[in-house]
Amino acid sequence: MDCHRRPFLPAAVLSALLAFAVGQECAAQVAPPLPAQPPVGPAATIEIEPALQPAPPAVAKVERPPISFNAVPSPRDGIVARLVASLMPRHHISSVELNDENAKRALDLFIDSLDPLKLYFYQSDVDEFQPFATRIDDMVRAGDLSLAYDIFRRFTFRVDERVAVAQQLLKSDFDFSRDETIIIDPDSASYAKTPAEARDRWRRQIKYALLDMKEQAESAKKKKAEGDDVAEITEVDPIERLQRRYDRYARRWKQTDSDDLLEMYLTAVTMSYDPHSTYMSPGTLDDFQIQMRLNLEGIGAALREKEGNTSVTSVIPGGAADKHGKLKPDDVIVSVGQGEDGEMVDIVEMPLQDVVDLIRGNKGTLVRLGVKPGGSGTLVVYKIIRARVELEESAARGEVLEHRLGNGPVKKIGFITLPSFYLDMEGARQQKANFRSSTRDVNRIIEEFKTKGVDGIVLDLSKNGGGSLTEAINLTGLFINRGPVVQVKDSNGQVQQYADDDVGTAWDGPLVVLCSKFSASASEIFAGAIQDYKRGIIVGDPASHGKGTVQTLMDIGQQLFQNNRNNYGALKVTLQQFYLPDGESTQRHGVAADLVLPSITQKMDVGEGDLKYALDHDRVSSTRHDVYSMVPADLLGELRKNSQQRVAADKEFVDLIRRVDLYVAQKEQSTVSLNEEKFMKRRAELDAQKEDEKEGEELQKTQDEIFRDTFYNREVINVAHEYINGLQKQNLARAN
Fold first, then answer.
1. Above 50 in pLDDT, residue 597?
2. N or C, which end of the chain has less CB nearby within 10 Å?
3. What share of the chain has pLDDT > 70, as a percent?
4. What are 553's strand-pairing partners?
5. Which residues contact 80 (CB under 8 A, 6 or more apart)?
6. HEC string of 344-404?
7. Per-residue pLDDT tens for 533-567?
8. Does 287 fall in a domain?
9. In what order do the strands lie in the sheet with 511-515?
10. 188-192, 260-264, 361-365, 721-725 — which is least confidently predicted?
11. Domain membership flag for residue 69
């Protein structure tokens, strides 16, 4: 929960992490005032000349006392702001003009990007910003960025105040026997109204940090004595660690330049439309392009800022972390070390881009990550050998399982794991005979399955975050005769259908698609089409991820000068939305499972609907398409009933449900006790849950393993077996 951010990358892409807890009080100084509200006239269309022009003059500002802020607006910033304000309504899927509602959202997002836990600003500061809540749209259209600088100056002023007070409080004694709490839910927190209230809040923040460090040290010693790999126990005094951390934090904000601030501010404006529309500064665009051009080596994991922590959002199939097998989505990385004995660098106050630079490295080298699994509990160390993500290792793979349900006959079930919808675009462009694609690989596996006489197929998309739209369409075509697979609506409201035009199928027998809340984008298109055609059943979490939009990257220099020789950054804008054949959007709602199995992932806040200002779900007209007879209502009801009975009788599922309930209860807590005994008891419960989860992962798949023999996957195969039986009894075992 200890968190602060620094503006280097868009919040939805690579926002920065500055995590720590401090004590504070209001120093007897005058905060820098905001200027008077600027006069705003009627909105006008901004014509951008094909040459660099200075931004319109800003409204005169009131003189401020000196502050520690060295960022100076670049002459091009105003033009970039005006262009972004012009491009968003022209290209965004909503086609909505930048308006007062966007302005209100942008102000909230910008303030939240600076102070997500409401630890720095006073309520009076935020109240002073509010008159501008409906002015930001007009100001940005006019190229006026004065408000961003004024709010940021106020913020850095408060940071200096808080860090100074934190250093004072660290010299005092703390009573850990008091029965008091700290708010850990940002939505439940409020800005301090008085110096006394602020000081008390930050006294609690320091107590929380000290208790956290003490618990980590004690837990690490215990685990180390038991022979487990845990993060090295630091010999640095906790007070000294916090003193260094706070000083580094204050220094980092003073390194903010005009590009950093422009990125934060314009990203707040674009994210008022939806969470995937962002502005990339020139530096961020450079880094993005390097990553697109080069096959960079590292651990193969995507990171983001989540409530002030460096959190793992996904583990890339075929990458080093995937092979290692322990790093999971929702884990929090708090330290990074190089090699076997390099110093473990505390990254809690470090910009996320710097964290990425520390983790990235040459293949074959070792990096050590200090990780809190699930964001809490014992700090463990994962030793990962960096590697390059190889297509071969992230490609589709399959195996045939011989399965018996009760005393019935053995069924042969083909199990395919598909980590992504991949396509060798260069090979396809050159019409190479053997270019790689997910469709080609799955088709090859199916042909092998048919020679072995499989009765049905399970396609595992539970960790598939998407990929090529073309591949989603082509792969669907392996299981349907022909017809529309997805509909796409653009910012003009025009809807275009994309169909499988190849007659025939590779597999017309029983099909089970395994999905989770991590199944996104192209996975949802495939699963949704299979469901609309009633071609197979969807099993897993209640719904998939829910990302039903597509983004494009618009080079600002290209927009201004018809070339990209001048780097002005880029606008990533959401310009299309996906719809299934029956007209439903996958946006927010995802694809609902036909048969739900218990899991912790379904309770994680990792779906599209968990993001602020995510676009709404809607629908378009349905398209004409075939409807197969592969999902009889009576059979589906029987499958659900029988699966529920097996789950209720399975002790591992019963224990999973218990852990899910505990996870939800802990997640819903808005406060944590700062009484040492109660704090340690809660942590012990968290650690016990992690141990339970660790036991469930002892069968962690190896690099060569395709099907993991876990209680969850066994139930998936049970469902598939019963589904095959049911179709055969009704003479529906083929999709004719």
1. yes
2. C
3. 83
4. 572
5. 262, 266, 279, 556, 568, 569
6. CEECCCCCHHHHHHHHCCCCCCEEEEEEEHHHCCCCEEEEEECECCCHHHHCCEEEEEEEE
7. 999 999 999 999 999 999 999 999 888 887 767 88
8. no
9. 397-404, 410-417, 456-460, 511-515, 537-540, 595-596
10. 361-365
11. no
> What is the Cα–Cα distance from 436 to 142, expressed in whole angstroms?
49
Verify that 306 and 270 share a domain, yes or no: no
| Domain end call among 385, 403, 437 | 385
Per the model's pLDDT, the better-predicted residue between 330 and 61 turns out to be 330
Task: Confirm if 370 and 336 have CB atoms less than 8 A apart.
Answer: yes
Q: Is residue 171 part of a domain?
A: yes
Indicate if 371 and 448 belong to the same structural domain. no
Number of domains in the chain: 3
Q: Are residues 611 and 462 in the same domain?
A: yes
Q: What is the mean pLDDT of the chain?
A: 83
Q: Which residues is 433 bridged to in the sheet?
A: none
- Would you state the structure tokens that stand for residue 260, as one six-digit string? 């950093």
Confidence of residue 452 (pLDDT cuts 50, 70, 90): very high
Q: CB-based contacts of 332: which residues, under 8 Å, 6+ apart?
A: 309, 310, 311, 312, 371, 372, 374, 375
Distances (CA, A) of 511 to 156, 230, 300, 535, 571: 58, 43, 31, 7, 41
pLDDT value of position 232: 52
351 shares a domain with 432: no
Residue positions counted in the chain: 736
CATH number at residue 348: 2.30.42.10
CATH number for the domain that contains residue 553? 3.90.226.10
Asked if residue 326 and residue 411 are part of one domain, the reply reads: no
Q: Same structural domain for residues 646 and 716?
A: yes
Q: What angle do CA 337, 343, 345 make, to 5 degrees?
A: 65
Give pLDDT, residue 322: 83
Q: Please, which residues have CB within 8 angstroms of residue 626's CB and are 6 or more apart in sequence? A: 480, 481, 483, 533
- Together in a domain, 354 and 457: no
- SS3 of 400-442: EEEEECCCCCEEEEEEEECCCECECHHHHHCCCCCCCEHHHHH
Higher pLDDT pick, 178 / 257: 178
Q: Is residue 232 part of a domain?
A: no
Residue where a domain terminates, one of 385, 407, 423: 385
**CA–CA separation, 374 and 601 (whole Å):** 11
**DSSP string over 75-115:** TTHHHHHHHHHHHHHHHSTT-PPP-HHHHHHHHHHHHHHH-
CA distance linking residue 581 with residue 625, whole number of Å: 7
pLDDT tens digits for 473-492? 999 999 999 999 999 999 99
Task: Tell whether 458 and 535 lie within a shared domain.
Answer: yes
Do 708 and 717 meet the contact criterion of CB atoms below 8 Å apart? no
Mapped onto helix, strand or coil, the DSSP state of residue 168 is helix
CA–CA separation, 411 and 452 (whole Å)? 12
Tokens 């055969």 sit on residue: 728
List pLDDT tens digits, range 75-107. 789 999 999 999 999 999 999 999 999 999 999
pTM, rounded to two decimals: 0.81
Residue 595: domain span: 395-729
